[in-house]
Design brief:
This protein is mostly helical. Helix 1 crosses helix 12, helix 3 runs antiparallel to helix 9 and helix 9 runs antiparallel to helix 12. It is globular and about 75 Å long. The protein has twelve helices and no strands.
Length: 305
């Protein structure tokens, strides 16, 4: 083997320092954004304190602000979206990572799945208004008439609501989950599959007991990225969720999210309302950070098993 020259070592050290600077730059930018948002939100933090999270009153005329309905809508819409998108996305990833299809057809389907991520959110919003909501009205009103004694179907679907927004969110995050989970599955060493089959495991036993656990960290990473997009998605959700500041247990009722609140009111806000909106943005940031920390803890615990 040819010995490495001084130039090669210098280039290696330079590359290490360059990537180290980039990594620290990302952390600095993140901290800087957080500090700036916190400074802008400080008047609302000192005025309302923790009651901002527990209050349901958002009244710009009286300068009374509480973000509980928006916080509930953000968590509920994202949770429903993930409940739909995670099993479908992992199923698509498994289907595309196994040899169920000829390679040429598989490449086309992978391209189409990834293409879903390139559609602008406003197009999803328009599709939801003109196509999805009319279809969901039939289903939603049937659920209300048949299962209205259940709190989650206690209201009819009159138009925009939590369910249409969550369904569109599920479609929007589906390519993220499917593409990244497929990458995690196809990057596994082929020895894993061969060893499992060699020990007598069936195809499904190999998938469920070997491949999925081995790719668990990658799949969780894909789900967390999808959750991050669902929590912060603005345009499509604003067009479909109804922007109601009331909390209802029904998934057919209008709701609101923090991102929609910011999109609707920030352009015309002034004074304490700006601080309240920045306070809401800070809560959304903390919520996303907590979700990512919990996901990292979960991955580390699973990897120890």
């Amino acid at each position: 083997m040819k010995p490495r020259s001084d130039w090669d070592r210098t280039m290696d050290r330079g590359f290490i320092w360059l990537t180290r600077i980039f990594a620290f730059a990302v952390a600095v930018i993140l901290i800087w954004i957080t500090v700036q948002v916190a400074i802008k939100a400080w008047p609302a933090i000192t005025e309302f304190g923790f009651s901002f999270i527990t209050s349901t009153n958002w009244d710009p005329v009286r300068n009374q602000y509480g973000a509980l309905p928006q916080l509930y809508g953000t968590i509920a819409s994202s949770a429903i979206a993930l409940l739909i998108a995670v099993p479908v996305g992992i199923g698509v990833a498994l289907f595309l990572s196994e040899d169920y299809l000829p390679p040429r057809i598989q490449v086309v389907i992978v391209f189409l799945v990834e293409l879903l991520a390139a559609i602008p959110s406003v197009v999803y919003g328009l599709w939801g208004i003109f196509v999805l909501i009319p279809l969901l009205k039939v289903v939603g009103n049937w659920l209300n008439a048949s299962l209205g004694w259940l709190p989650i179907f206690s209201t009819p679907l009159r138009g925009p609501g939590l369910l249409p927004a969550a369904l569109v969110l599920a479609i929007m995050v589906l390519p993220t989950i499917a593409a990244l989970s497929r990458d995690a599955l196809i990057s596994l060493p082929p020895d894993l599959r061969q060893a499992s089959v060699g020990l007598g495991a069936t195809r499904w036993e190999t998938i469920l007991k070997v491949l999925l656990p081995s790719a668990f960290s990658g799949i969780v990473g894909a789900v967390m990225l999808a959750l991050g997009r669902a929590l912060g998605e603005t345009m499509a959700v604003t067009m479909l969720i109804g922007n109601s500041n009331n909390i209802s247990p029904s998934i057919l009722a209008p709701s609101n999210t923090i991102a929609s609140l910011l999109a609707n009111q920030f352009a015309e806000a002034s004074g304490l309302q700006v601080a309240a909106l920045m306070y809401a943005a800070l809560i959304l940031f903390v919520l996303t950070l907590l979700v990512n920390i919990l996901a990292q803890i979960l991955i580390e615990r699973v990897q120890r098993i």
